[in-house]
Amino acid sequence: MIGRFAVFLAYHLEGSAAYKRWKGFFHNLLINPRSRMRPYFDLSMMALVTLSVFLYIYDTKHGGGVAGEYLEYFAVSVFCVEYLLRLWLHDDSHKIVIEHYEKAEFLNLRFRLGPALWHILLRKWQYATTPFAVIDLLAILPVYRPLRILRVFILLRLFKLFRYAQSFNEFVRVLSENASSCTPWRFSSVS
User: Fold this and answer.
1) Which of 52, 127, 144, 176 has its CA 20 to 30 A from that of 118?
2) How far lies 86's CA from each of 51, 80, 130, 177, 186, in Å?
3) What Å distances lie between residue 106 and 4, 101, 148, CA to CA?
4) pTM over 0.85
5) Which whole number is the average pLDDT over 158-180?
6) Strand runs (DSSP E) across the chain, as ranges?
7) In Å, how far from its chain's centre is CA 121?
8) CB neighbours of 19 closer than 8 A, spacing ≥ 6?
9) Helical axes 65-89 vs 131-140, angle rounded to 10°
10) For the chain, give me the number of helices (H) and strands (E)?
11) How does pLDDT run across 18-39, given as a tens digit for each residue?
């Protein structure tokens, strides 16, 4: 029953134009180095990371107050959403379900959801163990009350700047190449 529903959902996602549109939007926002949106996102994330680290340093000496706490929760919420979106974008889980289902159908076997889920978890684990994903996770964890001892990991948020700086540098390089390839308008005097 659950396996049938998973297959139905997988085929539904495969044929959904809205799903593909949303996935393409977030791919352009977070991953695509040629996207026009990405430098703005990266710049805003760099500002949020810098502000949250500054707030942490300020809070240790002076106390951040309620506004500082709300800003910290906002920053962590944005970091969590970004982490989950990157995990979602890492691969198409519904395609793995379809692949396992069609293979079982071709071999005239009963479809079992377990191996497909295991394959999906392994693919997600591959992303979760990349250096940037580990840094993202360590930057999120200290906000949770039981893990307050991990507050020092907030400084690891500075490493998140490397991800965004690479994209921003690429954007600046492309702009400078375009600017150098354009020739200034030359007006000739007519006599």
Assistant:
1) 144
2) 22, 10, 12, 30, 48
3) 16, 9, 52
4) no
5) 61
6) none
7) 18
8) 13
9) 150
10) 8, 0
11) 999 999 999 999 989 889 998 8
